[in-house]
Write a structure and sequence with these properties.
Number of domains: 1
Radius of gyration: 14 Å
Strand content: under 5%
Number of helices: 2
Oligomer: single chain
Order of helices and strands: HH
Structural class: mainly alpha
């Protein structure tokens, strides 16, 4: 169980790092491709 938690933590940390690196690009793309604000918000929430 402990090892699993550590694995999960390091994985989420890695994901957070990737997210920080790509968030601006992702949001730009989403705003460009999504006509509605609801869609953008939904997608942004999924990224976080």
């Amino acid at each position: 169980m402990h090892q699993f938690l550590v694995c999960q933590l390091s994985r989420s940390a890695h994901l957070a790092e990737l997210t920080q690196r790509t968030i601006s690009y992702q949001l730009e793309t989403l705003v460009w491709s999504c006509p509605t604000k609801a869609c953008v918000t939904q997608q942004a929430r999924r990224i976080q």
